[in-house]
Amino acid sequence: MAQIVEIIDVDVPVSTSYNQWTQFEEFPKFLTSVKSVTQQDDTHSHWVVNIAGSERSFDTVVSEQHPDERVAWTSTGGQVNHAGVVTFHKLSDTSSRVAVQIDWDPDGAVEKAGAALNIPDRVVKSALADFKKFIEEQGSADGAWRGTVDN
User: What domain range is 95 assigned to?
Assistant: First the structure.
């Protein structure tokens, strides 16, 4: 199993970064590898992504969610086997830290080679930079889901 850990500081309050992150269907606006997300209910989503030129789809379930603190998920089916957590940390009234950890199973020789070269780490780092740019330029979240899901 491979692991990715990336952290970025954003110049918006923690509630703004958290609220935007809970808007899964908006991910294609700032994550170029995400083609679409269909939210099926409060905890289940269907994702279509482009990974290294290959389109893949998978389902996820949110396993834990606490407003302004964390969102944890796991894949439940499809072509990408992974689990992850994103945590949100208040740095000041106007800035926050977003930390992402993803555990995944590389599938096949190409993904295993990519993992060995830390390519997925760079992709997640770039995605967080895109999130930072998006939310700082926008200044507010597209919406929010402030519900709690206990593990």
Answer: 2-138
